[in-house]
Amino acid sequence: MKGSSRSKGRSRGGKARNVLPGFGLSMGFAIVYLSLIVLIPLASVFIKTTGLSFAEFWGTVTNPRVLASYRISFFTAFSAAAVNMVFGLLIAWVLVRYRFPGKKFIDSLVDLPFALPTAVAGIALTAIYAPNGWMGKLLQPLGLKVAYTPLGITIALIFIGIPFVVRTVQPVLQDLNKEIEEAAVMLGAYRMRTFWKVILPELMPALLTGFALAFARGIGEYGSVVFISGNMPMKTEIAPLLIMTKLEQFDYAGATAIALVMLVVSFLLLLFINFMQWRINRRVVEGG
Amino acid sequence: MAGAITTHLSSEASKRPKHITEPALVRIVLITIALIFLALVVLLPLVSVFVEAFKKGFDVYRAAITDPDALSALRLTLLVAVIAVPLNTLFGISAAWAISKFRFRGKQFLITLIDLPFAVSPVISGLIYILMFGAQGFFGPWLDSHGIQLVFALPGIVLATVFVTVPFIARELIPLMQAQGVAEEEAAASLGAKGWQIFWRVTYPNIKWGLLYGIILCNARAMGEFGAVSVVSGHIRGQTNTLPLHIEILYNEYQFSASFAVASLLVMLAFVTLIVKSLMEWQMNKRASAQIV
Amino acid sequence: MLKGKWSISLLLVLVLILSACGANGGNQGTGAGAGESPAASTEASAAGEKPAEPVKLLNVSYDPTRELYEEYNKAFSTYWKNKTGQDVTISQSHGGSGKQARAVIDGLKADVVTLALGYDIDSLVEPGLLSADWQSKFEHNSSPYTSTIVFLVRKGNPKGIKVWNDLIKDGVEVITPNPQTSGGARWNYLAAWGYALKQNNNDEAKAQEFITQLFKHVPVLDTGARGATTTFVEKGIGDVLLAWENEAFLSIKELGPDQFEIVYPSVSILAEPPVAVVDKNAEANKSTEVAKAYLEYLYSDEGQEIAAKNYYRPINETIAAKYADTFKKLDLLTIDGDFGGWKAAQEKHFNAGGIFEKIYTPGS
Question: Cα dihedral angle (B255, B257, B260, B262), rounded to 10 degrees?
């Protein structure tokens, strides 16, 4: 990572840190802010759910339609994240290692899915992939339906998730030691073998982090998906939409029950990500 | 994003000796695949936004973006961003300082909490504020009796936006500052520098790119947030509609071109900030290299 | 380090410029700060009791009434100004009917609600926003205009759709929103259910069979009426759209008279989108009087005329006669007469575990 050469080895050690000021202030502010904005509001989901008996809660979250929606959300988010892992790596690779005209522009383009309102993304993607849209027209004769199928949802989630993978892999790839690759070559390894045996293992934590982030984001995504999914119960109905449906019927407890399950899953996923992240850091430090 | 450290694509990395890069043919094939993928997944939707926006001609486009409702939505969106982004910047810097410069237990847990808004469904992000501050919510009756309106008004929209964009700056800075370690700051401290001096003179120059990039992403996301804001906005025309909500309204009024016109405005705002970032980077690199010479 | 500060200040300048542009433009519209207006205007009207004090109304409505209330609000402001000398500014909020009702329950300070179905206004009773007898406060079930459910088909009616039974023929695709998220779709569903009951001598099992068949022909379930119309009209999906009569007329007007035509089924349902003053909010806003007048004026000749022009069926006989060419006479079921009121219908069909859910999860 940038500048890591300066302080490797010392960065995690040392009681001398107490020398630096501002721990109380910065930590205090961060905790208070996080509590007010994130934790207390999120706790309301738990509190609201306690209005249900456990049997009611269980009945709500294991209803066949709800289960189907989890399945769809997880399946499409997983496929999209997997696709993004492959192509995200490729894009990051190309952006870091090769020179070609328009590279800066392409690099900026990667961030745009963050900036585009999700509803606009949904509307635009539906317009493109509907049977009378640009892509839809091309794919229709091949018997390939995109809009209003799980494939459509997956495409929307690929759009949403691609920056996560590219932006996590890019810095690691950039800081990868040339020496390791050189050594592999000297030991007579072929390029492909070097990639599989030397480069990929180094990138794996970052790739998995990107994958998990894209996956977590995909499970919860709503705005871009509702337009393209077709919203058929049991087939293309996603979990966030079911929360909305419950709300429309003034069933707050039911809505928060589904939300709670999603929250817990997201949280576990993120803990996993940060564990990976922690391992990357440790590796960098040990590597130095 | 988690772990994303700003990369200003250094030309250094792409200059590689022949034996550790791929043959030209492979390079071209890889570049082509990457470009085709990006064109299909990212560029195509963007292009379609502009094509649809200008479908009915420039007059319709201009009318759409100068409509009083659109302007008031634009004003609200910018106002929300102007409040939310500095708040999150302040939070991002403090959180990153605490996490990267000190040791304490539960650090991974704290980082996970900062990440949480990334993974929470926008629907839930809006819902939680209704559960808290809505008329039926935990604090609703109290707020109501004091005549304070949080949800379905500006504060609710700001809260939802802040929630959604909490991680951007903190997550950009944490890995960066962790990698930099504390040696320089400690040196400064031992030379007698005070807290703010250490930050401004030592830490800040090292993290400014990460910070800037985080601010830009945070800002873009703050202006574009739809799901969470939609839940807490109340959709009052000319009053609590942000640009993304206005886009949805136009779309629902069969004014497809107008809705894409307003959408293109948001895309351009995002582009402008990204271009500014590139320009500043370029300027900076030029100065830096001039200094070395 | 100077360079560093420079980069951030440039960004700040940019943000300031952007917000300045916004501020200039925004002066033409109503300011965003007016979001908290109910409180502000309460103080304003409390300060002086003169009727000339300007008053603000918030009308929370459902999706298809945008055009109607845009026109009606202008007419009412003029009328009220002439009558009392008081300025009245009416703000509008539109969205799915259920979502809008929920927003009002959660604290959106609506002075009046004009929603798609009585069930949604009923839901405001329990939180104490209005009294249980709201539907008797205005004439005609508090429904100043009515509508019905019709079929919108592609020009020339290529699939030959005439009656409800044609919808479940092989190869016919039906577009309707999800009745669990859309008020309009509940009318669609109940119209179909009512037809099936009539056809099968009130045999509920057979009616359920028909409804199940019908929804097997639905390829896309949008969340709202407008979304469904877009799917049918813009995306070109489906052979028939089940729609509000006013929405069908509007889409023909807006999107092409040469592309679509309306088919009237032999049996349909009398859709009564009701209106009500949200007593609690109106009292707090000191707008009860004008809110009442606002809804009453919907029954006046001018109000009825505006409704008719926007393709809602007027209840005033004289005005209705004037627009007899537009609105075809139909055999219409009613929610209270044929379905035992909204509460019963909702519980039986749309709530969790109701008949609608069984369509998609057989055996549950």
Answer: -70
